[in-house]
């Protein structure tokens, strides 16, 4: 008996030794594995926290006008911009030990395992906020051992490399709240129409309950279940010391005001402008397509929503609804180049081709101000005269010729000044000037004005036969409007990444590309198309608009067989309009030839309605004198018409007009009739 007891004892000792050995070996292996895992996680470094986020496009007043996303409405907000109620509610219900654990809640894991064993099913979760964040960032939502191991590794990496606030911020900006809303900002805007920082306790506790089952606990799916879940969360917040019993009761009975709409009601505004902005991001700022679409960028543009609306309405109103005529429109601030309105066509859905920035069309006579500016630099003045008559120019020893024609084949058959030639849009004067300067001069001057398309060195270039883009012409006239300072068309003021860090900001170059005094003279010459004092063999080209104008404008129209233009400005605003057929069909109807002018004036008048009517200031180095518009000489007392004209100092005329002296000398003076003095009584009674 004693022998058997001794054998059993020895056997027991043997088993205990084996158990201890294997236990210690297992513990050692677990320790090695744990530290290996820790070391591996440390070597792997911080995992990236980037997630697909909507890129937002803002107008100049901060209104969101566009959004680029992959079906996930997600807008990143900093933790400081999230309501404390929402943070406390989330931590209470999802992971009350979040701020103290190292990524895993072992007590909770053990409790969940026991509950699952008792129920023989998965009934309780034990994932911490860090684990859930890791799963949302990097993993598929399957239930394999490989996925769980990878999740554990990412959890360690997050905890080792990021602060609790960074993890919590990422989690709240990542989780799904139902109805297409990813992250707390999108959810807050969708459910309650407010920013995440403004959520009340009642709203926050309801939102915190949705991620457990968006299709179950969303108030739009079931208000009853949403309220039940809300009460559970309020109780956990009370238990964890975040709120009082009274606050919990008040929040539980509060009736939420639901919205059920995603933010940004102005999304879709100015689609042609938005396309141009995305092209600028891609081609000028070198952002790749994925970053533009999913990078969570904040793109702050120059668009003025009010002026954009005016431009669109002007085009809709002025062009007949059944016409196939298309339009391209750009409005700019000449001081900084900001594009405040842009229309690339009459219907974006029917044709997204952007005629404001993509189409290359002949500018016609709108090229003449660039030509005449070059002439001013080469000794011409507004009073320089040349003969306006049908002229054939011969080239290459008589082997080729060119004959420009005026509108309706009307000519002065006499000398006219450059100021009048511009106002009447005389083509012969323009070609003569162009050839006198040399064809290379206009090509080079156009480049200084920001024209980027190729210019042909031909006689007809003076009449705008080489194609240009609307946006470039608007920019060219902006340089005149601001007195000769370099500007470029600006669509984007600033770009921020998803963290709110500025990664691009536009900074203008400070450069003078034109002589200020000559730019001022050119501007004054461009006011002449609205001045009837310059009428000659035909009326000034802006005569049909004069009665509708409420302020001074400088402008030039341009027409070719297939293109109609109007470009002009005030000191505050420049706009350029092109109208025509996409396929280059001739514009034949008289009403269609007037579309560009009417759109331009309608826009300018309404866009500047609340602005003061500013006059163009004469630049330093200029002088203004009265001249006879026909001869360009100083006006004498006998001149029937006198026009104040601006000149660069030292180039003003010194010779007086003598064309009307003979008329004065032979004019018979009418004898003065002696005024009869009435008796006093007739003067008193008006007899």
From TrEMBL:
<dbReference type="InterPro" id="IPR012338">
    <property type="entry name" value="Beta-lactam/transpept-like"/>
</dbReference>
<dbReference type="Pfam" id="PF00912">
    <property type="entry name" value="Transgly"/>
</dbReference>
<dbReference type="InterPro" id="IPR001264">
    <property type="entry name" value="Glyco_trans_51"/>
</dbReference>
<dbReference type="Pfam" id="PF00905">
    <property type="entry name" value="Transpeptidase"/>
</dbReference>
<keyword id="KW-0378">Hydrolase</keyword>
<dbReference type="GO" id="GO:0008658">
    <property type="term" value="F:penicillin binding"/>
</dbReference>
<dbReference type="InterPro" id="IPR001460">
    <property type="entry name" value="PCN-bd_Tpept"/>
</dbReference>
<dbReference type="GO" id="GO:0009252">
    <property type="term" value="P:peptidoglycan biosynthetic process"/>
</dbReference>
<dbReference type="InterPro" id="IPR023346">
    <property type="entry name" value="Lysozyme-like_dom_sf"/>
</dbReference>
<dbReference type="GO" id="GO:0008955">
    <property type="term" value="F:peptidoglycan glycosyltransferase activity"/>
</dbReference>
<dbReference type="GO" id="GO:0009002">
    <property type="term" value="F:serine-type D-Ala-D-Ala carboxypeptidase activity"/>
</dbReference>
<keyword id="KW-1133">Transmembrane helix</keyword>
<keyword id="KW-0645">Protease</keyword>
<keyword id="KW-1003">Cell membrane</keyword>
<keyword id="KW-0961">Cell wall biogenesis/degradation</keyword>
<dbReference type="InterPro" id="IPR050396">
    <property type="entry name" value="Glycosyltr_51/Transpeptidase"/>
</dbReference>
<dbReference type="GO" id="GO:0006508">
    <property type="term" value="P:proteolysis"/>
</dbReference>
<keyword id="KW-0808">Transferase</keyword>
<dbReference type="GO" id="GO:0071555">
    <property type="term" value="P:cell wall organization"/>
</dbReference>
<protein>
    <submittedName>
        <fullName>Multimodular transpeptidase-transglycosylase</fullName>
        <ecNumber>2.4.1.129</ecNumber>
        <ecNumber>3.4.-.-</ecNumber>
    </submittedName>
</protein>
<keyword id="KW-0328">Glycosyltransferase</keyword>
<feature type="domain" description="Penicillin-binding protein transpeptidase">
    <location>
        <begin position="328"/>
        <end position="578"/>
    </location>
</feature>
<dbReference type="GO" id="GO:0030288">
    <property type="term" value="C:outer membrane-bounded periplasmic space"/>
</dbReference>
<keyword id="KW-0121">Carboxypeptidase</keyword>
<comment type="similarity">
    <text>In the C-terminal section; belongs to the transpeptidase family.</text>
</comment>
<keyword id="KW-0812">Transmembrane</keyword>
<keyword id="KW-0133">Cell shape</keyword>
<keyword id="KW-0472">Membrane</keyword>
<keyword id="KW-0511">Multifunctional enzyme</keyword>
<dbReference type="GO" id="GO:0008360">
    <property type="term" value="P:regulation of cell shape"/>
</dbReference>
<feature type="domain" description="Glycosyl transferase family 51">
    <location>
        <begin position="62"/>
        <end position="238"/>
    </location>
</feature>
<comment type="similarity">
    <text>In the N-terminal section; belongs to the glycosyltransferase 51 family.</text>
</comment>
<dbReference type="GO" id="GO:0005886">
    <property type="term" value="C:plasma membrane"/>
</dbReference>
<dbReference type="InterPro" id="IPR036950">
    <property type="entry name" value="PBP_transglycosylase"/>
</dbReference>
<feature type="transmembrane region" description="Helical">
    <location>
        <begin position="20"/>
        <end position="41"/>
    </location>
</feature>
<keyword id="KW-0573">Peptidoglycan synthesis</keyword>
């Amino acid at each position: 008996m004693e022998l058997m007891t001794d054998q059993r004892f020895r056997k027991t000792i043997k088993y205990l030794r084996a158990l201890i050995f294997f236990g210690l070996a297992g513990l050692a292996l677990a320790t090695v594995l744990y530290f290996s895992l820790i070391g591996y996680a440390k070597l792997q470094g911080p995992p990236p926290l980037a997630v697909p986020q909507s890129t937002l496009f803002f107008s100049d007043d901060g209104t969101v006008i566009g959004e680029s996303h992959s079906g996930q409405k997600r807008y990143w907000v900093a933790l400081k911009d999230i309501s404390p109620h929402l943070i406390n509610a989330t931590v209470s219900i999802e992971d009350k030990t979040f701020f103290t654990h190292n990524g895993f809640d072992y007590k909770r894991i053990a409790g969940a395992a026991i509950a699952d064993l008792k129920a023989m099913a998965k009934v309780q979760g034990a994932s911490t906020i860090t684990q859930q964040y890791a799963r949302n960032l990097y993993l598929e939502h399957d239930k394999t051992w490989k996925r769980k191991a990878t999740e554990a590794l990412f959890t360690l990496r997050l905890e080792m490399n990021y602060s609790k606030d960074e993890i919590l911020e990422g989690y709240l900006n990542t989780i799904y709240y139902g109805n297409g809303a990813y992250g707390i900002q999108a959810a807050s805007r969708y459910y309650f129409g407010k920013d995440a920082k403004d959520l009340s306790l009642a709203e926050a506790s309801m939102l915190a309950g949705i991620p457990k089952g968006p299709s179950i606990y969303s108030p739009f799916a079931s208000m009853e279940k949403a309220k039940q879940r809300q009460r559970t969360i309020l109780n956990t917040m009370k238990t964890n010391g975040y709120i009082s019993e009274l606050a919990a009761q008040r929040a539980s009975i509060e009736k939420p005001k639901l919205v059920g709409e995603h933010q940004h009601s102005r999304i879709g505004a100015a689609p042609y402008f938005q396309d141009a902005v995305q092209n600028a991001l891609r081609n000028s700022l070198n952002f790749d397509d994925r970053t533009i679409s999913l990078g969570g960028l904040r793109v702050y543009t120059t668009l003025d929503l009010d002026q954009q609306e005016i431009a669109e309405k002007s085009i809709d109103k002025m062009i007949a609804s059944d016409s196939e005529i298309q339009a391209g429109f750009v409005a700019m601030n000449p001081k900084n180049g900001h594009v405040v309105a842009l229309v690339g066509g009459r219907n974006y859905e029917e044709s997204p081709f952007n005629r404001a920035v993509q189409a290359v069309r002949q500018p016609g006579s709108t090229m003449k101000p660039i030509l005449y500016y070059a002439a001013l630099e080469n000794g011409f003045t507004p009073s320089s005269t040349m003969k306006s008559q049908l002229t054939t120019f011969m080239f290459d020893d008589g082997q080729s010729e060119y004959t420009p024609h005026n509108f309706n084949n009307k000519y002065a058959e006499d000398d006219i000044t450059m100021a009048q030639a511009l106002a009447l849009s005389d083509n012969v004067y323009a070609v003569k000037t162009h050839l006198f300067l040399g064809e290379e001069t206009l090509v080079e001057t156009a480049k200084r004005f920001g024209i980027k398309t190729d210019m042909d060195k031909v006689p007809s270039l003076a009449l705008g036969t080489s194609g240009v883009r609307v946006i470039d012409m608007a920019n060219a006239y902006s340089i005149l409007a601001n007195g000769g300072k370099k500007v470029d068309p600006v669509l984007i003021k600033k770009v921020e990444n998803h963290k709110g860090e500025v990664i691009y900001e536009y900074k203008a170059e400070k450069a003078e590309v034109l002589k200020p005094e000559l730019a001022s003279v050119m501007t004054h010459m461009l006011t002449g198309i609205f001045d009837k004092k310059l009428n000659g063999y035909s009326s000034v080209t802006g005569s049909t608009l004069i009665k509708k104008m409420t302020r001074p404008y400088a402008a030039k129209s341009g027409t070719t067989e297939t293109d109609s233009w109007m470009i002009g400005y005030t000191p505050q605003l420049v706009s350029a309009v092109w109208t025509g057929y996409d396929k280059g069909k001739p514009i034949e109807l008289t009403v269609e030839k007037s579309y560009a002018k009417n759109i331009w004036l309608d826009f300018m008048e309404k866009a500047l309605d609340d602005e003061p009517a500013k006059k163009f200031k004469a630049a330093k180095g200029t002088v203004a004198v009265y001249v006879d518009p026909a001869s360009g000489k100083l006006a004498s007392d006998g001149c029937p018409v006198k026009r104040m004209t601006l000149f660069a100092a030292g180039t003003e005329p010194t010779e007086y007009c003598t064309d009307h002296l003979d008329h004065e000398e032979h004019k018979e003076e009418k004898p003065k009739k002696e005024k009869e003095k009435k008796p006093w009584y007739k003067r008193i009674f008006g007899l």
